[in-house]
Amino acid sequence: MRVLDLWSPTPRASSRAPVKRRGNGDLVVLRTLRVLGMTLALAALTTACSEGGGPLPVRTDSGVRADGGVDAGPLACLADERICDGLCVKTETDEENCGSCSNACAAAERCVDGVCAALACASGETMCGTSCVVTTSDNTNCGSCGTACAAGEMCTASVCQSDCAAPNQRCMVDTMTVCLDTSSDDANCGACGDACPAGQTCAGSVCGCDDARTACGATCVDAETDVANCGVCGRACSAGEICRTGSCRCDTGLTDCAAGCVNTRTDNANCGTCGMACPSGQSCSDGACSSVCAGMPGTIFCAGACVNSSTSAMHCGGCGNVCGAGTSCGGGTCRPSNDLRANAIPITFAAAEVTLTGTTTDALTDGPGATCGCTSGVDVWYTFTLTTTDIVYFDTLATSTFDSALYLTNSTGATITTAGACDDDSGCTGLFNKAQIAASLSAGTYYVVVSGCGAGAFTLHAQRIANSVSSFIYGTAITGSATSSTVLVGTSEHTPMCTAGPSGEDLYWFVTCGGAQSASLCASDGGSWRRMSGTTGPFDPVLTLFSASTGADIACNDDGGTGCAGADSTLTFGSRLSAVAAPRGLNAFIVDERNQTAGLTYTIRYTVTR
Question: Which CATH architecture has domain 471-608?
Answer without folding.
Answer: Sandwich (2.60)
